[in-house]
Amino acid sequence: MATFVNITTFPPNSTIFVTALANAALTQTVTITPPSGGAAVFSGSGENNTTMAVKSAGFLTTGGGGQPRFTTGATAGTYKVQITSSSGTENVQFSAATSSWSSGATANVLMVVGEDATDQDFNDAVAMFTWYTPANS
């Protein structure tokens, strides 16, 4: 059982938007540790994709409207995503998808999910990372 994942697939020099959602009665905590800088922590509980609050922004940019976000460097590096619940560690998995258009633009989503109990729905906590690449000039 994996209790965290290391994400190495973020592109360099890109803005990545982050959302954390809960689908459980137990308090869920998502901790994102960047290659450098302080960790970001989201926490919350509830059903129906309840948005988790940012408890510690760490390396994320917050405020000014919109979602929490960060910009990768010239080398994107490795981001550790750990999910726990008020009952302990969770089984953590991830998946990524990209949609491409003939213009060369892409829309990307990477989801890290956690399972805190035995129902195996793998939606108790969801950390979603989204980014896009613009069309070719």
Low-confidence parts lasting 5 or more residues at pLDDT below 50?
none
Give the helix/strand class: mainly beta
Distance separating the two termini = 45 Å
Number of strands: 10
Shape: globular
What fraction of residues sit in β-strands? over 45%
Count of separate DSSP helical elements: 0
Q: Helicity, in percent? A: under 10%
Biggest β-sheet description = 10 strands, antiparallel
Q: How do the SSEs run, as a string of H and E?
A: EEEEEEEEEE
- Our Rg estimate from Cα atoms comes to 15 Å
- Overall mean confidence score, pLDDT: 94
Give structural notes:
- The protein has no helices and ten strands.
- The protein has strands spanning 4-7, 15-33, 40-51, 53-56, 69-71, 79-85, 88-89, 91-100, 106-115, 125-133.
- Strands 1, 2, 3, 4, 5, 6, 7, 8, 9 and 10 form a ten-stranded antiparallel sheet that branches.
- The mean pLDDT is 94.
In short:
This protein is mainly β.
Identify the notable features of this structure and list them briefly:
ten-stranded antiparallel beta sheet, 137 residues, single chain, globular, mainly beta, 0% helix
Question: Mind sketching the topology for me?
Answer:
Blueprint: E1 4-7, E2 15-33, E3 40-51, E4 53-56, E5 69-71, E6 79-85, E7 88-89, E8 91-100, E9 106-115, E10 125-133
Antiparallel strand pairs: 1-6, 2-3, 2-5, 2-6, 2-10, 3-4, 6-7, 8-9, 9-10
